[in-house]
Amino acid sequence: MILSKLYSTPNSTSKEDPIRKALLEQVEKQKKAIALSPERQKEAYYRSVMFANEQVPLHNPSVEKKFERYLANFSFRKQQSYDLHKKAAAHLPQIAAILKSYGIPEDFKYVPLVESDMNPRITSHKGAGGYWQFMPATARLYGLKVNGSVDERKDLIKSTHAAARYLKSLYKEFNDWTLVAAAYNVGGGSLKNTIRRQGTKDYYNLHLNRETGSYVYKLVSMKQVIENPNKHGYKRYAQTYDRYQHTNERNLL
Asked: What is the pLDDT of residues 125-154, one digit of tens each?
């Protein structure tokens, strides 16, 4: 009877061993520390950075450097204002819904924030105007009225439908959404000539004029500060869905 009790009682010494328990706790703490280290957090965050469902190649040092420069420009530290997020909350859901109806990636909803700061009254020195900064001829080509008495570039809904049609036509030319964004800025013909001369269709390897060369970086950076407000200093808009921001994490950038 005594022997049966001895053999039926589990040997729990190893589980209750205080040294073993302390070692296991230390290992777990180290794992958490590594997982939350700035290096690992930055690595995980950078792997998550996408544009139009394609990963931005932030493993490339030159791409990383440019991205961080424009990301810093859109941070709260630089802006000192919540205007970007207010405008995004007010207008982006409408824009995203229209783009979706045309099969345009949602990330293009950030174009009006970058182009016009959501101010329809802005006109460039070249004559581009409205939310999407259409040139008059392009606006008319895609269905907008632009004349002495009417300028539908200033109508958010109508101009977004026109922009969606334009973006769709650019995609038929380039079959690459990152190049579509670049073409939206510089023009399809100009971008085609650049691609032909340089022999590459990779936006991140093309030598472009300063404005076009920074354009996608601005869109990606705008997306990051709107979707991850806490990480970039916009505490008022911080939400639990800030995926790559731990509650005790300092901002990395």
From this structure: 999 999 999 999 999 999 999 999 999 999
Residue 109: C-alpha distances to residues 56, 202, 204, 217 (Å): 18, 22, 21, 15
pTM: 0.81
Instruction: Give the separation between CA 137 and CA 139, rounded to whole angstroms.
Output: 5
CA distances from 179 to 62, 169, 187 (A): 18, 12, 10
Residue with tokens 């792997």: 47
